[in-house]
Amino acid sequence: MNSNAPSAVHVSSDTSRHAAPRHSPAEIDVRPVKGRRDLATFVRLPGDLLRDDPQWVEPLHLERRLHLTKNPAFDHVTWQGFIAWSGDRPVGRISAQTDSLHRQYHGADSGHFGMLDAIDDPNVFAALFTAAEAWLHERGARHITGPYNLTINEECGLLIDGFEWPPSMMMGHAGRYYASHVEAQGYTPAKDLLAYWMSTHGVNFTPAMRRMVDRWRDRIHLRPLRRDRFDEELDILRDIFNDAWAKNWGFVPFTDAEFHELGTSLKMLVPPELIQIAEIDAKPVAFIVGLPNLNEAIAPLHGRLWPMGWLRLLWRLKVRRPKTGRVPLMGVRGEYQFSRLGPTLALVLIESIQASLIRHGIEAVEMSWILEDNAGMRNILEHIGTDLYKRYRLYEKHL
Length: 399
Prior knowledge:
Layout: E1 28-32, H1 35-50, H2 61-69, E2 77-86, E3 89-99, H3 100-106, E4 110-118, H4 122-138, E5 143-146, E6 148-149, E7 155-156, E8 158-161, H5 178-184, E9 188-199, H6 207-216, E10 220-224, H7 230-244, H8 256-269, E11 275-280, E12 283-292, H9 294-298, H10 309-320, E13 324-332, H11 334-337, H12 341-359, E14 364-371, H13 375-383, E15 387-398
Helix pairs in contact: 6-12, 7-8
């Protein structure tokens, strides 16, 4: 790890104040989420379990409730939450979900788990997975993958390396013990998702990269997102993304409703120049999105916007402003990915977003997530001065 990585804060091997005592299976009662009170418990529970982890950033409770009640993914996703109780105390949670769109691409027997948080107790994890798997089995699922919160196009993967740094926005965090308990339930690694840390002032292209960019620069036209044609621009970005990612592991396309919901958030949070579109012969062929790291602003709020959280959030976004960011979306159309123009487009986009981020006072960004077997993108990032600093894992199990 070099100096580009964010400064570390030591975290002990046990980050949960709820690590003991162990419970017997008979003491754990797992019940489905029903009604607003259960949903509120489900949303708040990670904050209760991880509050002593100095790197934990609690999501806004309001945002999480909306995510679980008014999500456009519900056009193709059906989910059920479960809470594990020890007496009157919640000690864990999990979601189970089926995705009809995922089944179109990856088989009618697929199912998923997600939203996983629990105390350090094997019996709690076992009880949660037993309930989730029974629900999935009843709905024809035999091949289970996860965690997805709630789809692969939302927050996904279990943190297995990089616990000493806080999560960037729309990325997860977990106790160090989670992975071993998941694997004890018969889940095996399916795919790793990688996060790279990039100083906006520390990007350096190799001489070969610079020659490649200079050779093709005149053919590539870069422009920011046109806010006055916002819906049309969103359709362009979605089309590029779905084409660019179509052959990747676990791919499920963004629906129009999902991408426009995402676009509404981008419109509020992202200046147009932090969304760069590359064109060749007047045709949009690639794009990149940079986001201010909202987690910097919400960290002190502990999930709550009332009574003064709104004002604190606005002040941190508009006055203090985040110093870090995240690049969550990037895509190059498939027809260019295995040509010389493919890596050139990626480099030109990175160079353009670097300049825009610097102008907005952002000193470093997380590039995430990147599939572990995306050799082309990893090769670029590892040669321009970034650090591989976090690893998330997707698991699978055959019932």
